């Protein structure tokens, strides 16, 4: 019981600080210096930066405090989705924060959008607009790059999050691919069990097709330099590519968060458990070379949700 009480106390403190920051419009930067950093990792316990590519001397540090999911770089701007309501899904305390990447520093933090559902996931810029996946409401919220509301796209019918029939898709990843947009359909609550799918949408946000994937509760849609799409087969602890390539990452954690550069692949590894305990769950990242050979594993203080290369 003492450990449970301590975890509960820490969670309550983090939640109180997040709510206070939301109310005051503050962004809690821990360390704005990105000199020498290679990757940014969004987690339930902060935004982390990792230096180097996983070789000797690699290090990790917290750069922003908070509970984060979506993470997207567009030019010299960094957009993040922050859940300031933490475990409480009844309060609309999600927000979008923008940072300028000025040289090697995070600068000019600005809260662009507030009042979002706390169960939003990834962010992408599509056709010059900031697109946010409102996972709970099965919608794509579109804003200008300065945060002005444009519209809400609903290619999927609303469904309650507890639905098990397949109506609730748990959309969690978005990417612009050629002249189409891809959305990840997690499908993790369907009974009987169903694999994940890619939903392909045209530029008018109309559904073209649903493509089954060889994985369950998948996350991420990432193209390498050849245009090959990669995903996390989260429940298997793998990453998979459209050509059938598969790499096993972890036996005990789920894969979530993926980024690829010409020299390396980085994969997030997240603990999974009851929602009321998730703010305390740990995680890590594995860095591989492009032959998918392991370079190093690094432990993080929180479960990764999204990863980008700087």
Automatic annotation (TrEMBL):
Matches recorded under SUPFAM superfamilies: YWTD domain
Protein name (Swiss-Prot/TrEMBL): Sugar lactone lactonase YvrE
Lineage summary: Bacteria, Pseudomonadati, Pseudomonadota, Alphaproteobacteria, Sphingomonadales
Protein's organism: Sphingomonas aurantiaca
